[in-house]
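Q: I'm writing a short explainer about Glutamine--fructose-6-phosphate aminotransferase [isomerizing] for a general audience and would like to include a description of its predicted shape. Could you first generate the structure from this sequence?
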Amino acid sequence: MCGIIGILGKQDVAPLLLDGLKRLEYRGYDSAGVATVYQKHLGRLRAPGKLVHLEEKLAKTPLKGNVGIGHTRWATHGAPIERNAHPQMTDKVAVVHNGIIENFAELRDELIADGCVFESDTDTEVLAHLVTREIKGGLTPVEAMRVSLKRLRGAYAVALIFEGEEDLMIAARFGPPLAIGYGKGEMFVGSDAIALAPFTNRISYLEDGDWVVLTHNSATIYNSDDLVVERDISTSSGNEFLVSKSNHRHFMHKEMFEQPEVISHTLAHYLDLGNDKINENANPIDWKNVERLSFASCGTAYYSTLVARYWFEKLCGLIVENDVASEFRYREPPMTDKTLAMFVSQSGETADTLASLRYCRAKGVKTATVVNVLESTMGREADFVLPTLAGPEIGVASTKAFTCQLSALASVVLTAAKHRGTLDRAMETKLVRQLAELPRIITDVLKLDSDIEEICRDLMTVKNILYIGRGTSYPIALEGALKLKELSYIHAEGYAAGELKHGPIALIDETMPVIVVAPHDRWFDKTVSNLQEVAARGGRIILITDKEGANAAGINSLSTIVMPDVPEFIAPIVYAVPVQLIAYHTAVLLGTDVDQPRNLAKSVTVE
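A: Of course. Here's the predicted structure. Afterward I'll give you a sentence or two in plain language.
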């Protein structure tokens, strides 16, 4: 995750901005920059690479000014070079931004037609030009910001400073987190409380759709309807920010809400989002010479490979095998030089998965690992490393790591299909655009949080739950059941919906909840037949579907979680979120230890 810091201070803020950015280094980045207002004029310094390069520039050419913004960037639109680093700037405004502006291309074309000259490849620059155009048209910075925000579609956290304004900063949030820090004659903005810990212990958090007008002595927060609102201010000791839950009760809850941001960074590694195509530089594998793909992983990571199997088979025409790593390593399967063995692991240290990788290497088979920790053993030993950019995950039950695994695998599938000649340019554009919409869509799904909590109140007294799904929803059903077991200690099983009548239907009665993962896709009608079988036996149905699916289900006695309409390709990534929320809220209601469930470890380094 990249990081934002903003300060309205009493002294030159550039050194303080740099200190705040250093506290955000754990989020990952590839360039950095700061901007200030001094004697009414904007100034800026940026540098690719690590913060030491920016620090060296600031030492040679200090930036003065007591209002400023800073940013560590993980490239989404545009290569990690200086002109694409943040802050992005015009003669009127400087802006830092986390997230993805989905409609940047149409906005850029509109602005270019109006005479705007773009200096970067970023989506962020469109916001700078939008605001600048409105200011030059006669609006105040506050009004210009209000109007410009209405034009954006996507997921974003932004902070802006303005030419001629030494007592003004405006920030906004839709998706990625943003915190406001309250000082005495000073105000602060940061991606999280960790960055703000040296400056203040009074923190509030913007909610989705909020935007805030800051001066040295005030913070006026507006909601998405432009109405003034109050947000709770919490007071904590600085030490509590070293590993911060922000305004969330548990790390798991925080990490679920980080998914829009971290998915955007994962996608940006593999895709050229600015041009709606894959990023060729992110592909280390010669897919033309792969005839068989062999997956081996454990737990949640294994379920990500089950989803990927549908993608690789349909889009690439590849033969795909999936194994639980603890079985694969002892099965000793025959391998050929046309096989690629791929291993998925959050930690890169999972003992059975690592042993499977070493087995394949000993057989002379090329290996690839999808991993969140590049410096891990698997990251070092695999022939090819495919990173997930989820950032640190404190909760033992995987959430954002899982959706980043899926996002990485979906992106890799597009690369493989293109190399194998099974993906034309039109389809590449279509699927890349679908993936680019994920941060915004998942932000919308997370707004169902309180609705899902209410549904979970009916699960507190049950002893057993079934999850079912078809197609790519089947692995999500498996993942949902695993999450519920891990967190709530309720026995749950996931099944392919078509298998229901081959045994599990014997368990159905009025005490048995059945959670059905069923977007309105090509499998939906068959899944509804299975719903009817459950309803006929008095089962308690919780249906996770979209509006069309809810209308078509034709069953009265069920609870429905109505999801956004999404294309089939990205549906499993989106539908992973409600099953996470079901597990979380059920566990919280039951009073279990959500972040550290009994008997479980984050990294399983033993057999």
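A: For your explainer, you could say: The chain has 20 helices and 27 strands.
Q: Perfect, that's easy to follow.
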